[in-house]
Design a protein that fits this description.
Length: 330
């Protein structure tokens, strides 16, 4: 009898279909976009944080990394020279904008595009990837970033941080188990705050207009706390950029496909299109946003660029929370 039951059980297990990922916000449109296992403790449970003994920081110190190894966003300006804190030009909008935000909030900020500097992370309360691209870390820097996170480090990923290190699964997990797939032309839409309890979203308008590229994501973020979405009904869907295109050339605009596409097009994420979220990851803390395409996000007022002040408040809150100065991901 026992042998018969065992045989029936094995037959049932073999015949059963693979378990599908279900239950994502937004429904079926966001299911089956990937359910990767990154082999680390991650999610919203603080038990994933390695709260090991550490020296207290009298003042937060963070590192901004903007190295690109493929497409380069205009707001990054000309590539920076070697070393830490090289001279900036007028077109280095991101670096200058982040320096201003840090100064206004009592934070010391170093910046670099020198990959050798990425092996010296232990003195920083947070590391910020802002519109980096492609394979911008070597093996030594990858090891240093992984060990930094395992020691309870803080990571903030902004905009094209999602267009970076596509083929390093650990980094994709750091982004929330998500990755850039494509986007339509930059256009104005409504950002919706879906969780106003986090320090990065507290006090912000529940809905505000902003111009950006609205990244579609494959895989769809999982095990994260969603903080903000974009209302897809507030903009017109247009053909995507990214999917199906030939490999980009550094410093050059995207090239058109070599043949008309005959494969499916990403329809977006329907009623739940996330643009900001947070999670614990492999002992550290990570806060992510796909926002930040336009140079205007560093404008001094919303009159100059709608949504600028909200974006800046989110980034400052993100830095303070992953660095341990404010509660994280609540």
């Amino acid at each position: 009898m026992n042998r018969l039951l065992l045989a029936l059980g094995l037959a049932t297990a073999i015949a059963a279909p693979a378990l599908a990922q279900t239950g994502n916000p937004g429904g079926a449109i966001n299911d089956n976009l990937g359910a990767m296992d990154y082999g680390v403790c991650r999610g919203t449970d603080p038990k994933c944080f390695h709260d090991w003994p550490r020296a207290k920081s009298a003042k937060l110190k963070v590192l901004l990394y903007t190295r690109t190894a493929g497409p380069r966003h205009a707001n990054l300006g000309a590539p920076l020279g070697a070393g830490l804190n090289p001279p900036l030009g007028d077109d280095n909008v991101v670096q200058k904008g982040m320096l201003r935000l840090a100064q206004e909030n009592g934070i010391d900020l170093d910046y670099t595009e020198d990959v050798t500097q990425m092996q010296r992370l232990v003195g920083y309360n947070a590391v910020i990837f802002f519109s980096t691209s492609r394979d911008n870390l070597d093996d030594g820097a990858k090891t240093a970033l992984r060990q930094y996170m395992r020691a309870g480090g803080g990571f903030v990923g902004v905009h094209n941080a999602f267009g970076t290190l596509y083929n390093w699964p650990y980094y994709e997990g750091l982004l929330g188990g998500a990755n850039f797939y494509d986007h339509g032309p930059a256009q104005t839409a409504d950002v919706v705050i879906v969780d106003d309890k986090d320090v990065s979203t507290k006090g912000l308008p529940k809905r505000f207009a902003m111009k950006d590229e609205w990244y579609n994501l494959v895989p769809f973020p999982t095990k994260v706390r969603f903080l903000a979405t974009v209302d897809e009904t507030s903009y017109t869907a247009k053909p995507g950029e990214g999917e199906g295109f030939p490999p980009p050339r550094p410093g050059q605009p995207p090239r058109p496909p070599m043949a008309p596409s005959v494969v499916g097009k990403s329809p977006g994420h329907g009623t739940f299109h996330p643009v900001a979220w947070c999670q614990y990851y492999d002992g550290g803390k990570a806060w992510l946003t796909t926002l930040g395409h336009d140079p205007g996000v560093f404008a001094q007022s919303d009159a100059d660029f709608a949504g600028a002040k909200a974006f800046q408040a989110m980034v400052v809150g993100a830095i303070k929370s992953v660095a341990g100065q404010e509660p994280f991901c609540r």
